[in-house]
Amino acid sequence: MGKTKTSKSNLATSGAPLSEEEFKIMIKEAEKGPFYSIQETTLIIDKWKSKYAF
Fold this sequence. Notes:
Blueprint: H1 20-30, H2 38-52
């Protein structure tokens, strides 16, 4: 797992409208993945916990 590319724009700012087209583009981008199975997700979380959890 590496670093993911993220947008620097804050879409949660109140008063800043989000157009329907921008929304559709964001949904299509999210649908590209990556997606993990339940087992893979459990392993990823367990690795994270062993590294960062106290």
